[in-house]
Amino acid sequence: MALAGGGCAEHKRATLPWPTASVVHPRIPEVSATDKELAEEDAPELRLELPAPVVSFPPAANVRPPRTRTAAPPPAIVEPSKPQSHVAAPQLSAEESSTGQQETSAGLAAAEKGLAVAQGKSLNAAQTDMVSKITGFMADARAAGATGDWSSAQTLARKAQLLAEELVKSLQ
User: Cα–Cα distance between 49 and 10 in angstroms, integer?
Assistant: First the structure.
């Protein structure tokens, strides 16, 4: 059993017993006084001379002149009879248009109820962000309804309604 733990006798490394181990310190050769004098005489005196730094600035042609403020032209007056943006609204039948109007109104009413619940309560940052998104969706839904795009108005009102429901849940 003892042989199994010792390993192979042929490949065993030689070990140095600790009591016979000694610490080896390198010896520095001593320099005689005449060698010191010769070394001092032969050594040249070195001086470090650096040239003055060269500063290069970009050429003046690349420098842009400062902007001058000009008075903005007055905004053009838009006639109320013309819509400001042309939206390609899908052509809906009278029944689909009526249904879209009703669902838009229902979604906006539900979103307003959700905002009313949140009114007066202290809101965290996420809830405040939700309120601003809800009001934005409601404004966009009303604008789409005003142009007759009831499909978009219905979608935007639904988004406002769902966010308002989430807001109410987060307040409870």
Answer: 65
As a whole number of angstroms, the distance between CA 128 and CA 43 comes to 79
Identity of residue 162: L
**Is 107 in contact with 157 (CB distance < 8 Å)?**
yes
- The answer to pTM > 0.90 is no
Q: How far apart are the C-alpha atoms of 116 and 138, rounded to whole Å?
A: 14
User: Do 161 and 111 meet the contact criterion of CB atoms below 8 Å apart?
Assistant: yes
pLDDT (tens digit, 0 to 9) for every residue of the chain, 172 residues total? Answer: 445 555 666 766 666 666 666 666 667 777 776 666 666 666 667 777 777 777 766 666 655 667 776 666 666 665 544 445 555 555 667 777 778 888 888 999 999 998 888 888 888 888 888 889 999 999 999 998 888 888 888 899 999 999 999 988 888 7
**Total H helices, total E strands in the chain:** 5, 0
CB atoms within 10 A of CB 162: 16
DSSP state of 21: -
Beta-carbon contacts of 150 under 8 Å, excluding residues fewer than 6 positions away, are 89, 92, 96, 97, 100, 101, 104, 144
- Residue 104: strand, helix, or coil: helix
